[in-house]
Amino acid sequence: GSLLIYRKLPELAREALLRAQHNNVPLYQAEQEVMGFDHAMVGAEILRKWKLPEHFQEATEFHHSPQRAQRFPSDPAVVHIADVISDALQYGNSGDPQVPPMDPQAWQLARLSDDTISPVIADVEHQFNSVFELFHPEPHGVAASLH
Prior knowledge:
The protein has about 150 residues and is mainly α. The chain is about 65% helix and about 0% strand. It has 9 helices and no strands. The longest helix has 19 residues, at about 115-135. The relative contact order is 0.10. Mean pLDDT is about 90; it is low at about 140-145.
């Protein structure tokens, strides 16, 4: 949804980014204030047009508010948790000036317990490093000589 907004409504997207930064609010909230909709709603509409499964549509549309999902609340809850963790660990940048707030019900909706966060973060870091190394392999011996 964000890419379509940036491409088709660049001035409104810029205004939403600036509003999020200046008012210290999540980007999706600033998008709703500026445009009356947000990137999650746009993304879900794209998935509907493409006739992708409803659980993908709900996961996209409600990933900032998983408790609002009607049919598949665990899917947007998992995406919500992943979104917050990836922003907190600074894996990528959506332009949002802050880490989005964690929905307190997300862990329950995703059927996860609070004690899963440490292993999940460790696994995310391991997977991120593995993928990063695929695209940026170090020449043999360089890593060893740095240690």
